[in-house]
Design brief:
Length: about 425
């Protein structure tokens, strides 16, 4: 598979806001210690699509997890296929448009109203509230006994002191929350204030959401809690970061911002997917070889034995010029891609574990960004960019945006 060169990028867009230096120059397939690092688009795609020989790389010895029915993120094989098929209906474009679009629009207007009244906002907080409230509606977390679920989830998932035993990634964060005393206390609060009231309400009156589905499948309260934590780690916080990085690009590039606002929905989504290709939030996936695997890269055959662990480098795969064309580290509105390569590349994963909420994430981001970027905004200082080693993702904080007020008309000097 070889991509055609990018025919024409209409604007000279800058490179990644979240650049890691020269990570894209590392070997495409490399064995470090006992872990295989896969960095090419072709190798990552092959492994993600090989459901017969490859399994989810995340495991845990935590008694709290192993004695429960496994959450969807821990599942593989037929069990995972059945669960994914059952929940897919909650995330289809039709369901998002018919059941959730009016809510997303109303929520956007409320948040924009707060920004306008205050004259500015911290976008990292604003985007967290949006992503949590939207995902909570789909999951069924709509009966909290106290406001502030976005803050509770942020506290639950953002404590850098959590020890995950050397593991990395979204699942490592979930494992850490379920292991550490501080995490258990916060999880208990999340359960009491947010999850338990939602479960009780749906036992009385079922709804068309994930929690109702889990109740119908016989999940107990603790198993439902773990599923809710999974959606929080894999959905809410990732959408938050994407909205921030997309805003960063579009506010600093007036031509691209203007093109985005003037485009139809399909073109806007294409641009957002290109930003996500360039700036994938979840940069690393873990997998384990259930059976021997053979990968060929550049004429070299790599034999990965059964039992071996693999790190799939999404950021580097997304910058593979063999798949995405020339200038892979630049934002290009007119990027030409070969058949089989999606605009966001591997940012939503691929194969059996591809993100089920991909359309929802882009749709809610687009609704919010259209409204936000129609305002006369400017960035008030540089956003704070850090890298979360446990989540293996970037975090954008202190992203202050302000409204530009029309300059007061100068009074004539009559003296």
């Amino acid at each position: 598979m070889t991509a055609e060169p990018v025919a024409h990028c209409p604007f000279h867009a800058p490179e990644r806001k979240t650049g890691f230096g020269h990570d894209h120059l590392a070997p495409e397939i490399e064995l470090q210690g006992d872990v295989w690092h896969l960095r090419s688009y072709a190798a990552v795609k092959q492994v993600l699509r090989d459901s017969e020989r490859v399994r989810q790389g995340a495991t845990t010895d935590n008694v709290l997890v192993t004695r429960l029915r496994p959450a969807v993120i821990f599942q593989d094989g037929e069990e995972h296929r059945e669960q994914r098929t059952a929940i897919a209906r909650f995330f289809t474009p039709k369901t998002v448009q018919d059941a959730h679009h009016p809510f997303i629009e109303a929520l956007t207007e409320r948040l924009i109203g707060q920004l306008e009244q205050a004259g500015g906002a911290d976008l990292s907080a604003l985007s967290m509230q949006l992503s949590v409230d939207v995902a909570a509606r789909v999951v069924g977390l709509t009966n909290s006994s106290k406001p502030g679920m976005d803050r509770r989830i942020d506290e639950l998932l953002s404590d850098g002191e959590i020890n995950t035993g050397g593991s990395t990634g979204m699942v490592a964060r979930l494992q850490g929350v379920l292991t550490q005393s501080k995490g258990l206390l916060r999880m208990s609060k999340f359960y009491r204030v947010d999850v338990r009231p939602a479960i009780q309400a749906r036992r009385r009156k079922p709804q068309e959401d994930v929690i109702t589905h889990l109740i119908g499948k016989g999940y107990n309260d603790l198993e439902i809690l773990v599923e809710c934590l999974t959606y929080a780690t894999a959905g809410m916080v990732t959408t938050r970061e994407f909205i921030s990085v997309a805003t960063w690009h579009l506010l600093e590039n007036p031509e691209i911002r203007e093109a985005y606002l003037a485009s139809d929905r399909n073109e806007r989504h294409r641009l957002l997917h290109e930003i996500l290709r360039l700036e994938p939030v979840a940069s690393t996936l873990w997998r384990r070889a259930e059976h021997d695997i053979t990968l060929e890269q550049g004429g070299v055959v790599h034999a990965i034995p059964a039992g071996a662990r693999m790190i799939l480098d999404i950021r580097t795969a997304n910058a593979d010029s063999a798949a995405v064309g020339a200038e892979p580290l630049s934002l290009c509105l007119g990027r030409s891609l070969p058949s089989g390569v999606q605009a966001q590349a591997m940012s939503f994963g691929d194969g059996a574990h591809r993100c089920p909420g991909a359309f929802l994430a882009i749709h809610e981001s687009d609704v919010f960004l259209q409204r936000l970027l129609s305002l006369p905004l400017r960035i008030a200082g540089s956003p704070q960019l850090t890298f979360n080693e446990m989540l293996m993702s970037y975090e954008i904080r202190e992203f202050k945006i302000k409204l530009e007020r029309p300059a007061e008309r100068e009074l004539p000097n009559v003296f």
